[in-house]
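Anyone else keep sequences and structure tokens together like this?

Example one:
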Amino acid sequence: VCNEIYVEMRKMARQMERHDVMLRVNPEVVKALKANNARWLQEMEELAGKTIIVKSDPVLHQEQFDIN
């Protein structure tokens, strides 16, 4: 799922006008994103040039995510 989020973030990075991005994911995905000193998050923030705010949403399936 982290790879899918990264790919989608890459597609959307140029179109985003705000300074931050809200990423809603399942709590287990939050753990994966924040593992290894938050390497995934750091790479996505560098790619997008924006701060990524991660929101845990237990209603979402582990393979679902929402980027706003």
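And example two:
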Amino acid sequence: MSERHALRAPKSPALKDATVLFYPGSSGEIDLVAHMQRFELVEELHHFGGIANDCVRLAHGFEHVQIHFKVKPWDFSAVLFGVESGLSVLVDPLKKRVKFSDWRVEADNPVLVYNPCLEHELMVILEQIAQK
């Protein structure tokens, strides 16, 4: 077996240059993505290929933000990939904004996973959407 190394997410570019993965669901993801597109806040938005795969991709720094508002209880462990690599996780980002450490897993969990250096920009966007 090879030696194990801790995975640390590299620093992200500014949000405008970051790549965002999203699940095209009906739980508010599309509103957030549409807002980002309408105001040209992000240039690269992609449908994602599964939460576990995308959490690992974020941890490696291939993408920088993940939006998925229907994370199932069994996907909780997938989100740990991001947490362990130093990414931030915000549960219910459009309403309660619960940190990962305070997450009470429910049937459907709205989750925003992101590089911590993007936090300020993302919080501004979430505030803009909340004021609508």
